[in-house]
Specification:
The protein is of the alpha/beta class. It has 8 helices and 5 strands, in the order βαβααβααβααβα. The protein has a single domain, classed as P-loop containing nucleotide triphosphate hydrolases (Rossmann fold, 3-Layer(aba) Sandwich). The chain has a 5-stranded parallel β-sheet, covered by helices on one side. Bound molecules: adenosine-5'-triphosphate and the ligand Cc1cn([C@H]2C[C@H](O)[C@@H](COP(=O)(O)O)O2)c(=O)[nH]c1=O. Ligand LXEULUCI binds next to helix 4. This is Probable thymidylate kinase. GO terms for molecular function: ATP binding; dTMP kinase activity. One of its GO terms (cellular component) is cytoplasm.
Length: 192
């Protein structure tokens, strides 16, 4: 099973992925975590470009779109293990939300695996900006407002759950567990 966490910067993805992993393992399931961008050379180049002032310009966004697509091809083989639950911090759905145009993003990601379940952590943009350190050029209200809008549009094409990420960590975690339980064969009645 391939479960993907999506959301604007600072939505709480990495915190919640850790909590979900622990809970799934306590329930006897094997879990592997992935992160995009990866720690490959391509991923490291992406991380550097994201700090550039021109990261949101049209030309740089096209370059990033191609690099994100190339970087994710490097982890595709890890997604075929049916004995594990693969949880990924982002996927090509991030490219659909952050880069454009949509048709082109879909085309260059046509070999990217479609997730079995997408958890969209939906956070207010103002809170996101407060949580982020502003090191990356994407971490500004105007850009993230558009990304949030794109997410709510593109997510409908997938098997998805929207989680209110404005709540405290424990409430968000419990909402995520309830959303995931039926997919992984865990009874949800004991989740507080
Ligand atoms: N529900 C929450 N309430 C308050 N603070 C939170 C919550 N969830 C996460 N945080 C805090 O917000 C910050 C960002 O969280 P986290 O790194 O988990 O988000 P992320 O979506 O992985 O971020 P990024 O996209 O920037 O990698 C961290 O300091 C974390 O402790
Ligand atoms: C996979 C992917 C990511 N991005 C952006 C989204 C974030 O601003 C950064 C990744 O850093 P984070 O620690 O996960 O916040 O990259 C993107 O624009 N397009 C993508 O495909």
């Amino acid at each position: 099973m391939y479960i993907v966490f999506e959301g604007i910067d600072g939505a709480g993805k990495s915190s919640q992925i850790q909590l979900l992993k622990e809970w799934l393992e306590e329930n006897g399931l094997e879990v592997e975590l992935l992160v995009e961008p990866t720690d490959s050379k391509v991923g490291k180049l992406i991380r550097e470009l994201l700090t550039y002032d021109n990261a949101t310009t049209e030309d740089m966004q096209k370059t990033l779109g191609l690099l994100f697509a190339a970087d994710r091809m490097l982890i595709m083989d890890k997604l075929n293990d049916e004995n594990k639950i693969i949880i990924s911090d982002r996927s090509f759905i991030s490219s659909l939300a952050y880069q454009e145009p949509k048709d082109w993003i879909n085309e260059i990601n046509k070999y990217a695996k479609k997730p079995d379940l997408v958890l969209l952590l939906d956070l207010d943009v103002a809170t996101s900006v407060k949580r982020c350190d502003g090191e990356d050029s994407f971490e500004n209200e105007e850009f993230l407002n558009k990304v949030k809008e794109n997410y709510l549009d593109v997510i409908k094409e997938f098997n998805y759950e929207i989680i209110d990420a404005n709540n405290g960590i424990n409430k968000v975690s419990s909402d995520i567990k309830k959303a995931v339980a039926s997919y992984v064969g865990i009874c949800s009645s004991q989740i507080p």
